[in-house]
Amino acid sequence: MAARVSDLLLSRPRDAEYRDADIHAAEARHFWFRARSRFVQWAWRRYFPDARRLLDLGCGTGFVLRELHRRDPRLTLAGCDRRLETLAIARTQAPGALIFAADVGALPLGPVFDVVTALDVLEHVDEDEAALAAICCALKPGGGVILSVPQHPWLWSEIDDFSCHRRRYVRIDLERKAAAAGFEILRSTSLFATTLPIVAASRRRRGAEFDPAAELRIPAAVSRALGAMISVEARLISAGLSLPFGSSLMLIARRPTT
What we know:
Layout: H1 5-10, H2 20-27, H3 31-47, E1 53-57, H4 63-71, E2 76-81, H5 84-93, E3 98-101, E4 113-119, H6 128-138, E5 139-150, H7 158-162, H8 171-180, E6 184-191, H9 196-202, H10 220-238, E7 248-254
Parallel strand pairs: 1-2, 1-4, 2-3, 4-5
Antiparallel strand pairs: 5-7, 6-7
Helix pairs in contact: 3-10
């Protein structure tokens, strides 16, 4: 029997100490959160346009669920995470969604969902291959998963330590693990390629200067400029180009129908 995702998430020894209020405030205005949400919407509409039941695994404060509902109110949405404080915000963000705590509920072992999103979740889990297998079991045949993870081990920094990351991914490794879990890979591409030099430079700071919340507090004008840069690569990705590098990696895969 596949491991429950709730059990896998509970294997984390601690959570990053970001304040939920800081994350919630940043999501509405920060280019990274907004761009990631748009990438998810694009992937859903491009690869799973008939999907009607979607679970956001590790939904956090519910920003992605809210944006998906705004895009298509017909979607039946669910979200789970492990922190009750975070889920309280998610319920206000997505009042029509089924919101539950991952350490109480679990992904069903039968085929229930048309799409599961796991956005910056797998890097927190010790047994990421077992988590992928559990996600596959929760999908209807032909259903899909949309994953995003941090990329490039050479980018490892104090932010990763603070965030309780287990790893940063290499594309071929994530593809191999997804295939071993039973998925048919439809697309993989790097994200945030245009901002990679900025990320690389910021991760070189060490010691007393370390402020994990600094990346959440960039000026609005800077965020708009960076968002415009990301919109260029979004157009390239939607046209079929898979970017070779970027601070994040997105993988889109499907549970086979047979």
